[in-house]
Amino acid sequence: MTTATKSVGEPLLEVQGLKKYFPIRGGFFSRVKGHVKAVDGVSFELRKGETVGLVGESGCGKTTVGRTILRLIEPTAGEVRFRGQDITHLPAGAMRRLRRDMQIIFQDPYSSLNPRMTVEGIVGEAMTVHGIASGADRRKRVGELLERVGLSARHMGRYPHEFSGGQRQRVGIARALALQPEFIVCDESVSALDVSIQAQILNLLMDLQQELGLSYLFIAHDLSVVEHISDRVAVMYLGRMAELAPSELLYERPLHPYTRALLSAVPVPDPTRKRERILLEGDVPTPINPPSGCVFHTRCWLAEERCKLEVPEFRDVGGGHFVACHLVDAATATLRKDGKEVPVGAGKALPMAEAAKVTLEPAAEAPAAEAPAAERPAAEAPAAEAPAAERPAAERPAADDADRKDAPPPAATA
Ligand SMILES: Nc1ncnc2c1ncn2[C@@H]1O[C@H](COP(=O)(O)OP(=O)(O)O)[C@@H](O)[C@H]1O
Ligand code: SF4
Ligand SMILES: [Mg+2]
Q1: Which residue CA neighbors atom 20 of ligand 1 most closely?
Q2: Which of 21, 112, 147, 155 has the least C-beta neighbours within 10 A?
Q3: Using CA positions, which residue lies closest to atom 6 of ligand 2?
Q4: CATH fold of 3-236+372-401, please?
Q5: Which ligand is nearest to the CA of 285?
Q6: Do residues 44 and 234 lie in contact, with contact meaning Cβ atoms separated by under 8 Å?
């Protein structure tokens, strides 16, 4: 889907210089010993009716961006404007009212849906909390929402474990829609699902967007997942923006060496279109002590001396194509090394056996410490019960995992 086929309106969300540093405490007095620079100066905007895909390796700060925008985590610095209003310092009460318009859908519906609540309770909870509907009115609304997301009103009395992974994610979507939001953060919302189920959920999200005029920040670690749903795609590396461009431009003419490395890992359906797999040497550096200059210089095969010293500016090189790299020539919008253009698809070539060892997929989801239960959004009511993912696998019916790629991650994303 492209911007041309959709009506994308004025800016809904404007993020400027967003930072989130998590303090690291230690020692006898629990003194702050350092900071995890999870998000370190991120800027972008999202327009009405638009989907911005946010990608990058695990740990690069995507979830933190999403949660900080919703103020489920307090930002360290920067500004978030929603419908033109600075919400960065909005008091709790006003923020709670505003959160009706800003919702989140998690990766793992298994752990984000309370296993002891019926679907009616899960989807309708926020309506009760916000005093929007109760009793028969609430039941009617929940039934309509379930039908809208491809389930049936008859499912209302069932519990999460009675559904497949894909169906559970539909319940998660119905819950997010309960308060008629304008903006939804989809945090790895399809990442745990099989490819065929992923496509169904992506189509549902796109249909809902058309119908309800929703705007999405669509987070994924995989560039191939966001391609079809996103109008624009942003690539993050170690807490910073590397590149942001309209989708077609990003996939056809990626400029940042990191984006090119990520794209080289995406299988190309056309076997005649050869592309070299770009090896990223070494591990992602720690965000506690990120590299100087360009944060990517320790893994970039094109790095030069100045990359270690100067932070590249995140600038528009034309047509809304933003990139942060010293080697990108703004006049021609090309990546150049020693005066010559580095063509797309060219990298540090690797023998296939070597390339096969390289993996960009994350080992595990976000850290266990991530979000205290009190930060749970949607209904803003903390779930009393332990999430399903914490229960031993033996307690779960086998059919549950039918359309899941693998077992749920050990830590709940919610
Ligand atoms: N509550 C927290 N306390 C300390 N560090 C955190 C916390 N939440 C996330 N982090 C760290 O911040 C970085 C970014 O994490 P995250 O936003 O979850 O990345 P992503 O969603 O891209 O995988 C990681 O290094 C992670 O370990
Ligand atoms: S600025 Fe230098 S290190 Fe950073 S991406 Fe560009 S070439 Fe690589
Ligand atoms: Mg994440």
Answers
A1: 59
A2: 147
A3: 325
A4: Rossmann fold (3.40.50)
A5: 1
A6: yes
